[in-house]
Amino acid sequence: MCSPRDSGLSLAAVRMMTRSRSGGPGAAPRRGGEEAAPLQRREAAAGKKSPSLAKHQRKTQKLKVAYEAPGHEKGESHKALEALGWEPRDWRQQLENIRTMRSGKDAPVDWLGVEHCHDPSAPPKVQRYQVLLSLMLSSQTKDQVTAGAMQRLRARGLTVDSILQTDDATLGSLIYPVGFWRSKVKYIKQTSAILQQRYGGDIPASVAELVALPGVGPKMAHLAMAVAWGIVSGIAPPPPAVDTHVHRIANRLRWTRTMTTSPEKTRAALEEWLPRELWGEINGLLVGFGQQTCLPVRPRCGACLNRSLCPAARSPEPLTPAPAP
Question: What pTM did the predictor assign?
Fold first, then answer.
């Protein structure tokens, strides 16, 4: 058995611990609270609370406060429930009007979009690779420029192997003048090497794996899932040069609870309320509408079926949302 010296405790400390347990020098041990109960009764009769009762009540109060969830003031829970069911005013009629205006399917996106840039006669694996490449090229690039670059690449046989065998200078001349073409040469080469090594020349079938590829962002990944794999994984805005249409129109129609400052925030805001069965349609619909009618500058409000339903058309405020930071 350890002595006080062995355990590191001083003799004075041992005496203090002993007195604390015994109630003081010469105190007799209590039996079943025989002495405590009369003391509590006397204090209760005098209108005082015993230290043990007061301590117990303080503990109870602390526990009560600890379990009260913050932000549950009166009315806040009701507001939260209302937020879950929020949807824009007149959005169904606005959507139907846009469908009517887009029924001709004659906007640039309808025949030059990334879903039209691949070779439909190529093997499925090659088609999926070409879809991914067209998405990478289309970032910060107009549809017409992307389509031209894809046409030149396909003329040389657009496969993973052909890209890896093409030197950087030649690849750059083929994709020029797409936006940031020098960086895209590097990303295309790196991504093609990864696809050959890890996926047998095919592209990944999940958003998480797609965004891990060099030069592939979440917007491209969602579109690749929809076009290449036929899986709707979200409202997939096209790459930045085009997805500004969705961003602009959603804000003009007030399809977001508050004005959003970036296309990605707009996509997230739309997914909060737009029925999932419309996710696959809404992107192409709004892009073509933005290319033909709801233009970035001088929109053709006079020819728009939504002119009486569009808050931006009736408002003297600027029609274009704040640019992304």
Answer: 0.56
